[in-house]
Design brief:
The protein has helices spanning 2-124, 148-152, 196-201, 251-256, 269-276, 348-352, and strands spanning 208-212, 221-226, 234-240, 258-259, 265-266, 281-288, 294-299, 302-304, 313-315, 318-320, 364-365, 385-386, 398-405. The protein is α+β, with helices and mostly antiparallel strands. Keywords: Angiogenesis, Coiled coil, Disulfide bond, Glycoprotein, Secreted, Signal.
């Protein structure tokens, strides 16, 4: 009987151990699955690390490539700036040669006119009449036979003759005592005049190219006289209308003048200086936007200081309907790409792409880039703008700057 109880206890213990063994086997199976999952996760982690390393290397290469591109772009910009400077120098030299050629062509044309008149006069003189002796030589002067407008319009080109202030003028032409009695198409004086108002007072009421010689100088210049804009007698010193002329020029070119007198042109700082310092002049700026709206700004006085003062601007009182975007530049010196006279730490001409009496930098930029259509996109505000009229990001369609004597105003 005792043995039977022991056997039952042993069986019970065996069953208990069997159940424990089964439980342990189940745990081992579960742990084995976890181990497999851990191994799989380790493998995926290694793959992910490899992918991250690959992406890091790609990013590093991209950063290096962009840095190299930025360096190449900087080098390219420097080369472009150098090429631009070279082009400006070449353009200036070309303009100088062109101006000299035109001056000689004009002189030759004038001499041909005089020769033709002398030949006609000789044919009219009786054969028995002795030829009159020429008078004593007169001081050097430039002869301009009448009528001036008819002659000047026959010139092959109308580029501004910025080199007419020559130290040595051509030798005096011989004059016959009866030359003034030769028939002429008009009795109007043929110039040169001190300005366009004097030409108007002498009866020349047509807007055209005229020869002007300011007082106190031997400097001759061709200008466009606007005799239609009421009351007439306006001397045009700047005009923008179609973008045909590049206004991003150097100091010497802005000093002498450039462009086409009957189109886009800049009369020249030296010419403007001599004109505005022979009396009291006012400035009229007319503007037109791309919708056809026209406005104006007028300043009661306008003159420039000499080159020794870098053509400092002197302006008077404003009135008009365009808004005053020029008084802010009053008292400022002229600045170009190669002559920095503005108050800004950099060169305003570099950003505004023109020559102007920059402050820091501009409320007006009438010598900037002529953009078609009005609103433009540019890294800087470099268009032809008048800030009080359409703002600095709007390039105007047409601009004219012209001067006229204003005896009621004093410097």
């Amino acid at each position: 009987r005792v043995h039977k109880q022991e056997l039952e206890l042993l069986n019970s213990e065996l069953l208990k151990q069997k159940r424990q063994i089964e439980t342990l086997q189940q745990l081992v199976e579960v742990d084995g699955g976890i181990v497999s999952e851990v191994k799989l996760l380790r493998k995926e982690s290694r793959n992910m690390n490899s992918r991250v390393t690959q992406l890091y290397m790609q990013l590093l290469h991209e950063i290096i490539r962009k840095r190299d591109n930025a360096l190449e772009l900087s080098q390219l910009e420097n080369r472009i700036l150098n090429q631009t400077a070279d082009m400006l120098q070449l353009a200036s030299k070309y303009k100088d040669l062109e101006h000299k050629y035109q001056h000689l062509a004009t002189l030759a044309h004038n001499q041909s006119e005089i020769i033709a008149q002398l030949e006609e006069h000789c044919q009219r003189v009786p054969a028995a009449r002795p030829m009159p002796q020429p008078p004593p030589a007169t001081p050097p002067r430039v002869y301009q036979p009448p009528p001036y407008n008819r002659i000047i319009n026959q010139i092959s080109t109308n580029e501004i003759q910025s080199d007419q202030n020559l130290k040595v003028l051509p030798p005096p032409l011989p004059t016959m005592p009866t030359l003034t009695s030769l028939p002429s198409s008009t009795d109007k004086p043929s110039g040169p005049w001190r300005d366009c108002l004097q030409a108007l007072e002498d009866g020349h009421d047509t807007s055209s190219i005229y020869l002007v010689k300011p007082e106190n100088t031997n400097r001759l210049m061709q200008v466009w006289c606007d005799q239609r804009h009421d009351p007439g007698g306006w001397t045009v010193i700047q005009r923008r209308l179609d973008g045909s002329v590049n206004f991003f020029r150097n100091w010497e070119t802005y000093k002498q003048g450039f462009g086409n007198i009957d189109g886009e042109y800049w009369l020249g700082l030296e010419n403007i200086y001599w004109l505005t310092n022979q009396g009291n002049y006012k400035l009229l700026v007319t503007m037109e936007d791309w919708s056809g709206r026209k406005v104006f700004a007028e300043y009661a006085s306008f003159r420039l200081e000499p080159e020794s003062e870098y053509y400092k601007l002197r302006l008077g009182r404003y009135h008009g309907n365009a808004g005053d975007s020029f008084t802010w530049h009053n008292g400022k010196q002229f600045t170009t790409l190669d002559r920095d006279h503005d108050v800004y730490t950099g060169n305003c001409a570099h950003y505004q792409k023109g020559g102007w009496w920059y402050n820091a930098c501009a409320h007006s930029n009438l010598n900037g880039v002529w953009y078609r259509g009005g609103h433009y996109r540019s890294r800087y505000q470099d268009g032809v703008y008048w800030a009080e009229f359409r703002g600095g990001s709007y390039s105007l369609k047409k601009v004219v700057m012209m001067i006229r004597p204003n005896p009621n105003t004093f410097h």
